[in-house]
Amino acid sequence: MTSSSIPSPVDQANLREWLDGQSRQLGFDSLRITDTHLGSATDRLQEWLEQGRHGRMEYMARHAQLRSDPALLVPGAVRVICVTMNYLSPGINFDDEWQRLANPTQAVVSMYARGRDYHKVMRNRLQEFAQMIEQQIGSFGYRVFTDSAPLMEVELARKAGLGWRGKHTLLLNQHSGSTFFLGEILVDVPLPIDQEEESHCGTCQACIEVCPTQAITAPYQLDARRCISYLTIENPDSIPVEFRRAMGNRVYGCDDCQLICPWNKFAQRSALPDFAERHGLGRASLLQLWSWTENEFNQRHEGSAIRRIGYSRWRRNLAVAMGNALAARGASQVEKDLLRQALLNALPLADTLVAEHIEWALNS
Q1: What does the H/E/C string look like for the chain?
Q2: Would you say 150 and 73 are in contact if contact means Cβ atoms under 8 Å apart?
Q3: What does R_g of the chain's alpha carbons equal in angstroms?
Q4: Whole-angstrom Cα distance, residue 179 to residue 264?
């Protein structure tokens, strides 16, 4: 079968069964197919950008046109093979996560980032999957993606039937909640498409109510400039003072809207060793992470999504969390003395960004 031919009904059924089976063998948990048309989603994206809700993520606006039409990324593309990959390691327990958030001297790193960088894990497997498809059907045009290009991944996954948009704007699935990564293969093969799934959020607003910074300004409306994930990861500048106290001990990302979501009682654990916790990131204290030198940061986060923010932003985030611990009732005086001394020791050699946040922390 060539890329320009249309599979017969028998071929389509056989190919789809084969695709599902091969995707599972490669570690993907679900697969659906959609076309490349994004409809009104492009208008909503443009409105979001015009309101400036993307903050310092200039690339969102710079590549807005490409996001609006996937076929511009892959000329001739007519379908998108969308897959999910669960990332929760077996040891993660949501009750434990809430307890860590309540312990001001502990460092909380977003659950997805405690293992290997998902970009590399998924991209390699998607590329292998595409090559397997090519061996099965012959040469065809394709390109693989996983949060690696201007592509409206969540909207495509929603259209493909992998789930529905929750009120926090993340994709939700009845069988695995929201704790999964998304990947895509754009292809020029006219495969049959899947049906969309209805929303199942109902009247629930738990994610809106739990957000520490009120970043979910209304159902399905997110202001990234207020989001702790944006503030600790994408934001290259000082963290606005009005959000520092609300950050608590979250030093990389924020999972509150996922932890509270009723659908995540169905969150599936990943069997892939790639996503297993590394370097104690699910149990580390603020002082332990603060003690890392820049070389240790780079070595321990090699192959991790966290390394992308760099040592300075890492220390910036930790300094805010340490300041919050100094102001918290839940930390003992001994712990506070150790935190204060660690900040004082670091101040003389700190760069401008980190020094500002250390000074704020010491005055908390």
Answers
A1: CCCCCCCCHHHHHHHHHHHHHHHHHCCCCEEEEEECCCCCHHHHHHHHHHCCCCCCCHHHHHCHHHHHCHHHCCCCCCEEEEEEEECECCCCCHHHHHHHHCCCCECEECHHHCCCCHHHHHHHHHHHHHHHHHHHHCCCCEEEECCCCCCCHHHHHHHHCCCEECCCCCEEECCCECCEEEEEEEECCCCCCCCCCCCCCCCCCHHHHHCCCCCEEECCEECHHHCHHHHHHHCCCCCCHHHHHHHCCEEECCCHHHHCCHHHHHCCECCCHHHCCCCCCCCCEHHHHHCCCHHHHHHHCCCCHHHHHHHHHHHHHHHHHHHHHHHCCCCCHHHHHHHHHHHHHHHHHCCHHHHHHHHHHHCC
A2: yes
A3: 22
A4: 8
In angstroms, rounded to a whole number, what is the distance separating the alpha carbons of residues 186 and 80?
5
Smallest Cα–Cα separation from 26: which of 249, 261, 183, 150?
A: 183
pLDDT, position 1 = 40
Instruction: Let me know if 35 is a catalytic residue.
Output: no
Residues 302, 152, 243, 220: is their CA dihedral positive or negative? negative
Q: What does the pLDDT look like over 148-195, one tens digit per residue?
A: 788 899 999 999 999 999 999 999 999 999 999 999 999 999 999 999
pLDDT at position 354: 98
Mean pLDDT of 247-260: 98
- How buried is residue 39: exposed, middle or buried, by Cβ count under 10 Å (0-12/13-18/19+)? exposed
What backbone torsions phi and psi does residue 198 show, to the nearest 5 degrees? -70, 155
Taking the alpha carbons at both ends of the chain, their separation in whole angstroms is 67
The catalytically annotated residue of 147, 223, 256, 274 is 147
